[in-house]
Amino acid sequence: MAFSFIDESNIGDAYDESLQKYQAVLSGIDELERIALNKPKSNIPAGLPNVTDGTTASYIQSRPKSVIQQLPTGLVTSLDKDKDLADVANLVLTEEILPNANTTGSVIQKSWGALSKAMTYGSQPAYCFYTQHGNYFGADFKLPYIKDVILESGKVYDKDCNVIFLRAWYQPSDIKYLIHREKQLAEHGIKSGWRLDKLTQLEAKEKTDESKSPAEREKSLETGGIQIIFAFQRGVGATFYGYSSDNNEVVYSTVNPDPRGIIPIHFIYHDMDMSNPIGRGAVELVAGLQNMLDSEMQMYQYAQALSLNPPLIKRGSFDTSTIRFKVNAIWDLGADQNASISPANISTNATNNFSNNYGLIKSQILNLNNSNDTSVSAEVGNPGFSKTDSGVKAQQERVGVSDNHLRKQFEGWFGDVCETMLNIHFALSEGEQEVDLTQEYIKRRKLEDSEFDASTAVVDYNKKLKGFKFKVDASTSKLKDDEQSMENLKGILELAQSDPELGQVIRKDQLLKRMINKSGVDDPEELIIDADQNNNGIADSEEQYE
Length: 546
Known about the structure:
- Strand 2 (123-133) and strand 3 form a beta hairpin.
- Helix 9 runs antiparallel to helix 11 (354-368).
- Helix content is 43%, strand content 16%.
- By secondary structure, the protein is an alpha+beta fold.
- Strands 4, 5, 6, 7, 8 and 9 form a six-stranded antiparallel beta sheet that branches.
- 25% of the residues are buried.
C-alpha cells in the first residue's frame, strides 16, 4: 500500500495551509493578466484616453506560434521491456490519443496557450485525465486557470510536490447529471469514486474575486457553482480525493491509475528562479516599461487631440459665442481694434521627441525578452541596437538562443503530458482493440522482418503493465527550413566535386534528389528518374540495337 501524505482526516487542513501560503504568490497575477490582455489601467487620470500599446501583448501571443510550429514526435519505451508493445503504444499516442485530446481545444492550440500563459504568469499547469466524448474513450488534458492549482505548502516546483490541489467548479445541473450517470453505471456493476449521498448535499455559491478569471472579472459575469477541491498525491496505488470545503466532506476518492504513481498535473515554466513556485514570466520582466509606454501613448494621444482642436487665446472684449472652427466661418470681433483670437501653440519637446522615446522604450521591452524589433527605423529606437549586418546577426543569434530555451521548456512539458496521457489511457481502457498500422510503421517492420505482413495490431488493455516512458525527439516542434537545408546540400555537393576521393563515398544521386525536393518547385517527383526505371530504360534501348 502506498504511503498517504493526506487522508480524509487531514485533507481540509492541508488544503487550507497550502492555499494560505500560496496567496502571496498569486497576488500579482491580476496585473500580469491585464498587461498580457492589452487592457488599460483602471486609474488613468481623467481626460486621458483609454489606449494602450500592444508591444508586450503582441509578443505574448505571437512568440509561442513561432517557437511551436508543429506537434513534436518522439519515442515510446516500455517499462516491461516489450519493444513491440512500445511500438504499438507509439501508434496509440499519435494516431488515437493526440487527435482526440480536444477538450477545450486541439492539442496544438492548447500547446500555444500553455506557453503563452507561462510567459504571462511564469508557468501554466496541465491536468491529464480519462474522458469520453463521441466515440472516443481515452486520455485527454486541459489547462486549468493558474489560480485553481495549488502546490503543496513549502514546495517551489511541481515535480517536488507530494500533493497538488486542483479547484474545480460544477453547476447544479452538472451534479444532477453526474448522479444520474453514476446510478446507471452502478446498475451495470460499474463502480466509481463518487459518493452520491454526499453530492446531493452540496450547494452552489458565488466565486470570490480571488478565484475569478480575467473574463469573469472584466465582464462582471455571475459566476460560481459548486466548488470541489481535488487532491492528487504521489505514489503507486495512492488515493486521490475530492473534497468540499463548504461542508468539510470528502465526496470522491479513487486510486491513482498511473502505474508509475505520478501526479497527473504538469507545469510548463517560462523561467524558474528556484524560489517562486510559479516561476517568472516574460510579462513580469517588462511590466514597468510597458506601463511607461502606455502612459507615453496616452499623453501623446491627448496632446494630438489638443493639437487638432486647440484652446484659443482671446484678446479684447467681444462675444465668443460665434467663435467656432468650421468651414467659411465668420468671426465677429466687434469694434475693438486690439481684439484678436488665435489657437494656442501646445507643441513641446516631449511631443516632438515622442517617436524617439517610443522607439527606445519599445526596443528595451523587446530587448529584455531577447526579441528583435523590426518596426523601429535606424534613426530612432535603442541606440544600443546595432544596425550593421554583424549587429543584426548577433541579435538574431540571441533570438535563436531564446527560442531554443522556450522550445526546450515546451518539449519537456509536452513529453510529460504525453507520457501521463499514455499511461492513463492504457490503465483505464478495457478489452481488446484493433489499431491500424501506418505505412511508415509497416515499412520499418518489413526492414526488420521481411516476412512481416499485417495492417493492424491488437492492443490488450486488460493486461497489467508497468507503464511507458516517452521522450520527445529534440526540436521536432520546429518546421525544417528548406532554404537552409538547400544551402547545406549545396555545400556538400561542392565539397564532393572539389575532392574526388570524398566524392566517391557520397551518393550524388540521393544528394541531387534531396536538393530537388527542397527546391520548392511544383511536382518535384516528375524531375527525378527512379534508378530501377532508368536501368530498365537502358536495357530496353540496348535490346533495340541488338
